[in-house]
Amino acid sequence: MDAVSLSELPPAIDYESVVREAMARVKENPAELETRLDLADGYLRLERYRDAAREYGEASSLDESCTAAWAGMARSLCYLGNFEGAKPYLERASGLDASAPSVLVGRGLLAYKDGDLKAARRDFEAASLADPGDVDAVFHLGQVLWEMHRYRECAEAFLRSLALDSANLVALRTLGNCYVALKEPKLALEAYQRAAEVDPTIETTHYGVGTLLVQLGRGAEAIEAFERALAIDPDYREAWEAIADVRQSSA
To answer: Would you say 42 and 194 are in contact if contact means Cβ atoms under 8 Å apart?
Structure first.
């Protein structure tokens, strides 16, 4: 999937509805493999990793040759921080299809955990090429590229990730940070503003919006952003100082 601009991102997917619909289908036909996988995938997107692991386990019991089920179990356990527990499931999946995108993502997660950024990048890139719709593959590729200071490539990866899941807060904030590193404040501001829309309860996001507005000479709007940060955390010292600086510079 090609990268898109922030203005072209699709509406956010309602994964709560996805899970509800999948649960209803599972209730009607508990032995249907694809429905069980849809439910597990939905839980994964909602970061309900224990529920995802359970449903991937159910899927593997329905079809022991299902690579996606074993790899999904491994991925869920990795997200729970149980990397050792994930390894046997990933080995089972790899024995079925070592080149499957879901297996490559699992391998990439283990390499990333071990600090082997080159191996992680290789696996995530291969997974995203094999399955451009695997949001985790391209998201984690973006994370690796960020740590490698490959900011332009990182931005492109996160834009591809956001084209698949436009409400990913980490992707939006890191994309904004990429544009800051690339000295593109207008694009950074757009990314941070979208992050604030996704979750308006994070004071540091509003502070980031404010600092970018200051760079762009939009002091009055910057003060409003800093005030939104202070409404969340009245003791946010940097926000108070930023407001004082803006008012002093405009006096």
So the answer is: no
